[in-house]
Design a protein that fits this description.
The N and C termini lie far apart (76 Å). The radius of gyration is 26 Å and the shape is globular. The protein has 490 residues and is an alpha+beta fold. 33% of the residues are buried. It has 12 helices and 16 strands. The strands form 4 sheets. It has an 8-stranded mixed β-sheet with strand order 7-8-9-11-10-12-14-13, with helices on both faces.
Length: 490
């Protein structure tokens, strides 16, 4: 038996208190397991000396420092002449990504594909257009793959502006759940599932499986080969962050060409919390009146499809230290309809109130659930946009247009007032229809069933309670609005 001490961890390993254990791989046993014992976590303060070089003062030494954490555990070697590996979480290497891509491409082409790093693959079969290209090379010379997936019909419509969904993962090398989710997404989008077919017909997917391939290969935690946190340099990436610069340049090209970035999702792993949840922006820039609702609609849809999703852990804030992250920059600069980070615990979930580790299949299912939620979100967003068109027309009446336009808009305004009355009367009886019906959203556009933006405009997003039904949500928001009106009259 050998005791291991892993020192100088700057972040507190909170998941170890919830049952997480370091993983062990033995070449002779051929599998990963958590066969460590006597796990303990401790912390210590390490001082550091810094010199002040102010031109108006003499050089002085100041003692600073910080708390670091250590992990100790025992392991008993069961085989002689064995090679054993220890890992923070289940690895997903660059070699495994190459193997998976080669296997998937061979299945699409229905023949064996020999792997070469320089090879760019383009497949057009069974209504699926698939292309893998090298966007750039990292500081270490590793290729950055960019995968394009859409339908054959959508691909040949070159002159028509397209709607794009971009997915990225592994900007932090140690957050391996991102790669498992990307694999689940790729498997789903290239399948013959009817939802996957609908997504390919509506969108063009751009998928970056590994944003930080250097960090993955050399085993870094968060940083790249140059020592940068690549999720803090999206605002103005330099030549030392070539992968981020290349991805942002592709977004600039699409945006300048008149294409619409419908959604951007950065897939991460979380080292402190359980389950899966979303970090999103507080509004949708191009949604105007229904901005508040749209920003929180996708997480609620994801809750229906993914049993491991926890809406209560979601955050819809743009903090000062997050202004240079991917989700905020894409949201602000490229006017993405939905820009968010999908976090998933590195350890596991508490679905049955007891923490359990995630399996690979469960990670795959989270990626698949994200695609299903995006499909429903696109339909709901389209219908919400049609409803809010009436409110947009009311705004233009005040700006003074021609009499003909005013007459049309006044007629629309009367319809809006009728719609409000219908909502107040029917909100107690009707709820948002279920989005899991096989018939699709044929009756989803009933105006009296849609939560309008003017009914929730002044309500804080924290009032959107987890697991709340559509009917209860509508009723509660209407009652809160009436109470506020009474207080103002008093």
């Amino acid at each position: 038996m050998v005791k291991f001490n892993i020192m100088n961890q700057t972040r507190h390993p909170e998941l170890y208190k919830k049952g997480m254990r370091p993983l062990v791989y033995s070449e002779k046993s051929g599998s990963w397991s958590s066969a460590v014992t006597n796990l303990s976590v401790s912390k210590a303060f390490i001082p550091t000396q810094r010199q002040s070089t102010s031109p108006t003062h003499h050089k002085t030494n100041s003692v600073q420092g910080g708390w670091v954490h250590s992990i100790s555990f025992n392991y008993t070697f069961t085989h002689s002449n064995d090679r054993v590996y220890f890992a923070y979480s289940k690895p997903y290497s660059f070699s495994r990504l190459n193997t998976f891509l080669r296997t998937m491409e061979s299945g699409l082409l229905q023949k064996e594909v020999g792997y070469e790093e320089e090879l760019e693959v383009s497949v057009c079969v069974d209504e699926v257009f698939y292309k893998r290209e090298i966007l750039c090379r990292s500081l270490g010379g590793v290729p950055l793959y960019c995968i394009t997936i859409t339908s054959n019909k959508q691909h040949h419509k070159l002159q028509r502006p397209r709607r794009y969904i971009m997915l990225t993962a592994r900007v932090h090398a140690s957050e391996t759940p991102g790669s498992f989710k990307i694999q689940g997404i790729l498997q789903f989008l290239t399948s013959k599932n009817h939802i996957a077919e609908a997504l390919r017909d509506k969108f063009t997917f751009l998928i970056i499986p590994m944003l930080n391939p250097d960090g993955v290969i050399i085993g870094n935690n968060r940083c790249s080969l140059g020592g940068f946190d690549l999720n803090r340099c999206w605002e103005s990436p330099s030549c030392e962050q070539p992968t981020i610069a290349a991805v942002k340049q592709r977004l600039h090209t699409l945006f300048a060409g008149g294409h619409h970035i419908f959604a951007y999702c950065d897939l991460h792993g979380h080292g402190k919390l359980l389950n899966s949840f979303v970090y999103s922006c507080h509004s949708v820039l191009c949604a105007e009146y229904c901005s508040w609702t749209r920003a929180r609609l996708l997480p609620r849809l994801l809750l229906r499809h993914c049993p491991f999703f926890d809406y209560r852990q979601c955050s819809f804030r743009v903090e000062a230290d997050r202004l240079t992250t991917a989700r905020v920059v894409v949201w602000r600069e490229f006017k993405a309809t939905c820009s968010f980070t999908l976090e998933t615990s590195i350890f596991g979930h508490n679905l049955n109130r007891h923490p359990k580790p995630f399996t690979e299949d469960q990670y795959f299912s989270i990626g698949e659930a994200l695609m299903k939620a995006l499909n429903e979100y696109s339909m709901l967003a389209e219908h919400m946009g049609r409803t809010v068109e009436w409110t947009d027309i009311m705004k233009l009446v005040r700006q003074g247009e021609t009499k003909e336009k005013q007459e049309v808009k006044i007629a629309r305004e009367s319809k809006v007032s009728q719609l409000k009355k219908l909502m107040e009367v029917s909100a107690l009886e009707n709820s948002l229809p279920s989005t899991t019906k096989s018939s699709g959203f044929n009756k989803l556009t009933n105006d009296r069933n849609i939560v309008r933006a003017d009914t929730i405009e002044s309500v804080s997003y924290t009032h959107l309670r987890a697991h709340e039904t559509g009917r209860n949500l509508v009723c509660r928001l209407l009652l809160e609005k009436k109470k506020k009106k009474k207080k103002k009259k008093k």
